[in-house]
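Apologies for my clumsy wording, but could you write out the amino acids of a protein and the C-alpha cells describing how it folds?
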Amino acid sequence: MLRTKLNEAMKDAMRARDQAALGTIRLILAKLKDTDIAARTEASREGVADDKILSMLQSMIKQRNESIALYEKGARQDLADKEKAEIVVIERFLPQQMDEAAVEAAVAEAMATSGAKSIKDMGGVMAALKAKYAGQMDFAKASAAVKKALAG
C-alpha cells in the first residue's frame, strides 16, 4: 500500500515538475530498495512490510534533523532549508503523529501489558511500542516517557 502511494507520488511530482519533491521521493524509493535487498533471504524475495517502511521514513527524518542542527551550527542556512523541505515531503507519507497525551497513554498501556516494573524492562516496553505504533510516534520522546514512568 505504502509502496504504491510512493510510486504514485513520484509520478505526480514528475507531472507537476516539482523537482524538490521528486528528488526526495526518489531518495525514499532508493532507500526502500536498499532496505528490501538487505531483508532478502533465500526463502523470501518479498519486500519489507509497511511497518518497516514507516520505521525507515522515521529514521530518514531523524537523520535530516541531525543534519539541520549541524548545518545551522555551521551557518549553512541554505542546506538546512533544503533538509527541512525534504522532511516536509517525507512526512506526507507518515500517519498522523501522536500527541504527548496519546504517547503517555500508549506507554502506560504497553507497561501494563508487558508487566514492566523496573528500568530493566524498558526494552520490552519499547519493543511493544515499536510493534504497535510504528510511524505514529517519536520513539525518542516515548523512550524518555518510559524512563520517567519506570524510574518514578
Remarks:
- The chain has two domains: 2-91, 100-151.
- The two ends are 41 Å apart (CA to CA).
